[in-house]
Amino acid sequence: MSAERAMAGGALSPSLVTAAERLERRFGARLRGRTEFRGELTYRVAAGDWVRVLSFCRNAPELAFDQLDCLLGDHLPERTEAPFEVVVHLLSHAHGHRLRVKTALAEGEGLPTITGLWPSAGFDERETWEMFGVVFHGHPDLRRLLTTDDFDGFPLRKDFPLQGTVGGRIRTDLRGKV
Amino acid sequence: MSDPIAQLIFLIVKAILLPVLIVLFVAFVIYFERKFAGFFQARVGPTYLGPWGSLQSFGDIFKLMSKEDVTPARADKPVFKLAPYIAFIPAFLVMAVLPFGPVGGEPNLFGYRFDYVIANFDAGLVLFLAMCALGVYGVVLAGWSSNSNYSLLGGLRAGAQMISYELAMGFSVVGVMLMAGSMSLVDIVDRQAGNFWDWYFIPQIVGAVIFFIASIAELNRTPFDLAEAEQELVAGHLTEYSGMRWGMFYFAEYVNLVVVSAIVSTLYLGGWRAPLEVLDFIPGPIWLFLKICVLIFLYMWIRWTIFRYRYNQLMSIGWKVLLPLSIANLAVTAVVVSLVG
Amino acid sequence: MDAGHDLPTPDAAAGATHRPTQEELRERKARTRRHLERTGEVMTLSMGPQHPSTHGVYRAVLDLDGEVVLAVRPEIGNLHRGVEKLCEYRTYHQIIPLTDRLDYISGFAMNHGFCEAAEKLMGVEVPDRGRYIRTIAHELCRLANHILWLGTHVMDLGTQTFFCICFRDREYVLDLFEMLTGARLTHSFCRIGGVAKDLPDGFDQRCRKVIDFLPKRVAEYERIIKHNRIYYKRAKNVGIFTAEDCYAWRVTGPTLRSAGVARDLRKDEPYAAYPEVEFEVAVEYNADVYDRFLVRMKEIRESCKIIRQCLDNLPDGPFLAPDAGHSLPVKKNVLRDPAAMIQDFYQVFRGPQAPKGEVYRGIEAPKGEMGFYIRSEGGSKPARVHFATPSFYHGQAVPALVEGEMVADVVAIFASVDLVLGDCDR
Fold this sequence. Notes:
The structure holds three protein chains of three kinds. Helices cover 24% and strands 25% of the residues of chain A. Chain A has four helices and seven strands. Chain A has helices spanning 3-8, 14-27, 50-59, 121-132, and strands at 31-37, 40-45, 67-75, 84-91, 98-105, 110-112, 135-137. Chain C has one domain: Cytochrome-c3 Hydrogenase, chain B, CATH 1.10.645. A three-stranded antiparallel beta sheet of chain C has the order 1-2-3. In chain C, a hairpin with a 4-residue loop joins strand 7 (368-379) and strand 8 (384-388). The two termini of chain C are 41 Å apart.
């Protein structure tokens, strides 16, 4: 059937193979893992390499990921030493390929912001912070985005209950500050 | 009964009857505005109250009167309450100088002379311009006293807009004044006696168009409805008003619409005069009424058809197009009048 | 077909609207910021969440210097429903009705995107007829979205009449949806492995009638709007957002295409029946509000073309994959066929069994690129679902778009990038 169907079988696009080789040549053993699934390539990196890897992804001509498709958080409670993950999906308009980069974080650990690389990460990082409690250092405006300002807890963590009331009352002392 | 007493009785009757008739008419103007808007928009408009929904406005008035009147906590209360009246009253005052039929001449009613004008005032045109300017205060004060940013912006826009368009309006009116040699609206209509080609809209076509455009801005209607631009400023100066206070602004807007239409027809379309002398057997008030209806329809048509200008575009039209044009029109008129007359 | 097309655009008025260069735009924005820092004399206007033209409950706190916008602080989240959390507690079939509440203007596109992502995860093949029906529904939904967009956009520029006319025309598309899916906005029509129902009797004929006259209507819209002097003045060279800006802020869809980038996931990463139909990617080059309008008008024409081709070449066969492990059975067979009944029980009570893994699938929703991320740890429920919705990023880009423009342009630009708050807040 279509090329897309074939891709779903697992083959990486040629430009992505070149990009992956370039990335591996640059960082080598510092990449913590490589996964291929349904034609999508995922790299794991250490939190310390986060900005270095991503800025390489953005700037190297073979990779040229000029758009951040999305940044999201994830919570894997069974992984006790580093239960949180931050995942970015990158897209290159020049080559038409996509890449996923993720890093694992322990509770209370933060990441440097990547709003300097892609301004569109601003809202995503705010959302990840409010939903998972992952702090992004250097973010220009790290406030709650989707929930109310007095919301208590990080709702997308797996241990957060689906039902119940948290911070449901309206606070008047916040008037004029928002 | 001597003539002065008869005149006094006539005056009282006119002074009561004319506003009442106009208010009644305005109720139907509002209905027609909604009905026409419906037709323009592939809808049907109001249908419930009365035949074809024709009593809708009266229903609205009762609804507005029964609604709670909210005054914002931090508003400037006296001014906030005064503003609707300041917008409302000037609109009515202009009616006093508006001729709706022949003035002077032979006794025509029960052996007495009935003048079809409340006050044959020499400076009627000045009164009209003054009342237009006064109406702006209602809008500006409403915007300022509401203590809301939307209202304030609306009030500021209204102030700036009306002042800049009043200039063009005033200059275009002076052309008519020069041609008629009078500022009395009665005299201006008398000078346009004859057939429709004697009306001032032919020699003063530039002035007439400028006056019409400026009057749209005076009336705060699309494309110049920046003061209450719904999509930007919610309702501009009206944002904080509710109930009958809001209703008064709304009503004043339509009274103004009727009055301005009457002024346009008086200045440029021969007032109460028939378009052809052979049609003079039909009374003057009916002709004036028909002309007002046509003009009101024109205003509605424009309102429901085109887009709104941006603030700076509105200003540049007012100052860079209309004002120079109206001054040029005035200069040409002055030269021609002094050469011919 | 469209007389409006031949008329020249009112370029005579172009003298009145100077097109600012990149440097000038940057300078304008820098100047407004400097003014803000230096004087601090600003009027703060809280636009929204209850405001006639924030298209829902978007809140933009504007810092104004008179009529000029110095800075914008966007506030979203008033319509946040926690869809991503809800998804973690539901099977893949049960998530489908949640997705069309995201962008409720174009519900089917959301259903479709999620199903594409789930199918990619599970490796389900959609039968040809299912793919074609999906394409038809997806394009109908693009029609509905763009017509509604036009109405609201034009209303934001001050004419209410056109809003009603657009709603009248959108009604024909919604009637088609009602006929096809039984619902007008939130269809929940897509299924993993195909669609819920076959095309009903008479749909073909009625659909053709609609897509025959819609291009004529588009020509009529263009006669009214494209050549309107006031619209031209209000929209031309307003809200310029170049391709680089679009990449940086992840602004996609018609806004990106109006900046001269022929980027369309229907072509670039094709799905459903898009590889098999012919259509053009609508591109304009001026990157302003006016060109976004032109792009959407072109897209309406192209959508009509796609639907016509799909109706012409509609293949026979099943519309839902006969994949007992992952997709629901055809509904009408459930009470007749024992195998279908077992499959139904299995799918409803146990859910589709997905492998362990994670996928990201982007589709070209009417508002822009919509990304669906699913991470599965096996089983019938996803471990994490994320919706990278276009409106979310469009809402974020609003400050970059409107700073330095005037208040009246804020609503015009805001409408021109097209966002809906259900999509933005999730």
